[in-house]
């Protein structure tokens, strides 16, 4: 930019006013994250203080009436549902991205991407509605009650599939044409090009997408709330009804008071910590990706 | 465009390369796998949309759009729900637009020097982290800050302002990208004409970036309309016509949730509402896409 930014005396009065106004809006935005964290910590203070947080992991269970707030069963449920969803969505998403990059007839590529973008924009509550009225009865006919860890996994997988597929496709598109041409010139079959060159080179991008999808699955509320049955228990099998952390907040927040409310805020804080950890990993992954391509 | 040509040339090359029979069978397996995966994905999609359409279609009528819900929503329409939804969205935009535009302009035009760079880094990091925060956590935050601390209760204000916090990261990043992709020659031209920075921004930069900004806005609106978890305990459940912004109002997405989970026999209304919501989202996203395309075309042609 050609305006000399350091030399403020050069700016007109309107300019310095504008700098101040926009700067203060930026300040508001900058403190927003801090404010979110601060409020979560403050509101969960009454159960966090005096080492009370250990009770989240050792008390008898989640019985708000008798001040027992064990988050572990719901934490396991959250992790199991998200992990299961990623295990299904990752191979499917990557394969459909490979399909549209290397196998699809040209006329199919654009409609496929449209479909993915549309799927990615469908509200979670609509996925939940469909899961509740179509998927759960189907599963229930096979293995009652139907509202289970499995239905949560399937709905979550469907929800994060577009994310995985779109980011994988972007990563595959970024593979340098030179390596693809080189591989083809060496006489590699299409399978060889895909498995030997394209996927390894796109690995970092695909992993970042997978981490983003995992974040989305961990933080998802409505879809899981509507299909998982919401019984607080450590999931023993795929067909057990489970309650995840997010669903617990949504279900109990409207009437929770005192320590109960504080425990819900604490579980929100826990969720945020897990998601932030993943975001940090994804950021590192991307940084690694950038370094990996630096030699080109 | 370039890339798709690339993939074609690879498949062309493949047809020339000699392949042993074992390689061929591996190739066939992989080809079959990716076709199955793609068919599965498209099949799921058609199943979902088909169900939405067939269940929701017979609910659709003009009176469904304008009437108030009756019998807990099983009968009547979603008129009051639509009004609440639009009011919540209006409040969210009222907060997002000035804050988002101001921050984006600051980040792309004003933040300079050592402190500016540090501020930029801090704001970007904060926005990135905010973008990943689960919506239910925004709900907790909105409930604590707006409903209780600021004493707004369950109201359209609380819900709208909570949504604004969620929309800001996306809106700021798209707006900033739009502003920084305006060619520097335009800035130089404006300053050669003796325009102040503020005037250049108003007359040159913002108009040039307008399609990108509007596209970002449309995407943010789409996200806000789809949001449910953050609204349940900020704007609340009340389904009658809101009398003021301090009233609780039920958003369309919350209506879908309530109809399918808490009201037996509400499934049909839920599907009707879901269909309306999807149609709104598709319209908004196609506007965003066409604006983005126009912006990209505009950017490439003049220079």
Helices and strands in order:
The complex is a heterodimer of chains A (296) and B (303).
Chain A: H1 13-43, H2 45-48, H3 55-58, E1 62-63, E2 68-69, H4 72-103, H5 106-121, H6 124-142, H7 149-173, H8 177-185, H9 190-201, H10 203-219, H11 222-227, H12 245-252, H13 258-292
Antiparallel strand pairs in A: 1-2
Chain B: H1 2-16, H2 21-57, H3 62-66, E1 69-70, E2 75-76, H4 79-110, H5 113-132, H6 135-149, H7 156-180, H8 184-192, H9 197-226, H10 229-232, H11 252-261, H12 267-300
Antiparallel strand pairs in B: 1-2
Helix pairs in contact in B: 2-12, 4-7, 4-9, 5-7, 6-7, 7-9, 8-9, 9-12, 11-12
Give a description of the structure.
The complex is a heterodimer of chains A (296) and B (303). With 296 residues, chain A is mainly α. Residues 4-9 and 289-296 of chain A have low confidence and may be disordered. Chain A is globular. Chain A has a single domain, classed as MetI-like fold, CATH 1.10.3720.10. A two-stranded antiparallel ribbon of chain A has the order 1-2. Helix content of chain A is 74%, strand content 1%. Chain A has helices at 13-43, 45-48, 55-58, 72-103, 106-121, 124-142, 149-173, 177-185, 190-201, 203-219, 222-227, 245-252, 258-292, and strands at residues 62-63, 68-69. Chain B is mainly α and 303 residues long. Chain B has one domain: MetI-like (MetI-like fold, Orthogonal Bundle), CATH 1.10.3720.10. In chain B, 78% of the residues lie in helices and 1% in strands. Chain B is built from twelve helices and two strands, in the order αααββααααααααα. Chain B has helices at residues 2-16, 21-57, 62-66, 79-110, 113-132, 135-149, 156-180, 184-192, 197-226, 229-232, 252-261, 267-300; strands spanning 69-70, 75-76. Chain B has a two-stranded antiparallel ribbon with strand order 1-2. In chain B, β1 and β2 (75-76) form a beta hairpin. The chains are: A mainly alpha (296), B mainly alpha (303).
